[in-house]
Amino acid sequence: MFTKMKNIDTAFKYVRGFTMLVIICCAVICCYTLSRSFQTVSRMQDKIYILAAGKALEAYASDRKDNVPVEARDHIKTFHQFFFTLDPDDKVIKTNVTKALYLADESAKRIYDDLKENGFYSGIISGNISQTIQIDSVTVDTRDYPYRFKCFSRQNIIRTTSILKRSLITEGSLRNVSRSDNNPHGFLIERFNTIENRDLTVENRK
Question: InterPro entries given for it (predicted)?
Answer without folding.
Answer: Conjug_transposon_TraK
